[in-house]
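Entry 14. Ran structure prediction on the chain below.
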Amino acid sequence: MWPIDRLRRQEDASARSADLPLILAGRVGNRRLVTAACFAAQALGLRTGMPVSKAQALVLDLRVEPADPEADVESLERLALWILQRISPIVAADPPDGVVIDSTGAEHLHGGEAAMLEALLGRLTMSGITVRAAVADSWGAAHAPARYCADPVAMAAPGSSEAVMSPCPSRPLRLPPATASVLRILGFATIGDLIGQPRAPLTRRFGPGLCQRLDQAPEDLAEPIEPLRPEGVIEVRRAFAEPIGAAETIARYIGKLVRQLCTPLAEKALGARRLDLLCFQVDNRIETVRGGLAVPQREP
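Output, structure tokens:
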């Protein structure tokens, strides 16, 4: 419901039009179609993809507003930055209506994954945002249940990605619309229908993208998240010609980075209240540790 929620959060809740069924209209070629519908409009039979003229014929007091996909994405990125500052150092927008969070290394600061999700959903709901959330081993494994299984939360046990995704339709594999449509025509109604199918025929028919998505869901293939970085954030980094793995070496370079970090903090007369350590592994995964301090500090 992100496009609807974004529009209504900007409006005066006391306005008369706030109680009317609402749809957003956008153009696909020469056709004017419904791109989003509020719960009241859905209860009256209106659906995404329906021609706007048909929707107006079905509901007389229907409110129609123009869709603004660019504003939706911009607001989604602002929401992701808000979550980054409060939940985890690795957060990214997942357009058109989602946010992906890698909470590894940060969930302990919130009392565990369940408490973290409860607090996050509570804050967003109080802000007027309709939200569903899922926790799973990978981005792909959480993407599908968040949209089709969560009520409002779905938590998959480690190693159960395939079982959680199997009953979901194939569309949340993040495939091109044409590919998802052909899969439905061929009888692949759910992700479970695709899991276990021979990969060679699927690759010949649909290209490598479909099998790549199937491999990313159970983390057989890494899918790195490119985290958002707040503007003006103070950060230091160190790249290595060869990977390092010894705990003593890692600790030594963390110490060097901390001393480097304190220099710009001192120059700007600032102190750190929260520190994020991001370690990029050779398989493109990112290991994170988030630490907090009771008072601002700039002493190494």
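The mean pLDDT is 88. Will compare against last week's run tomorrow.
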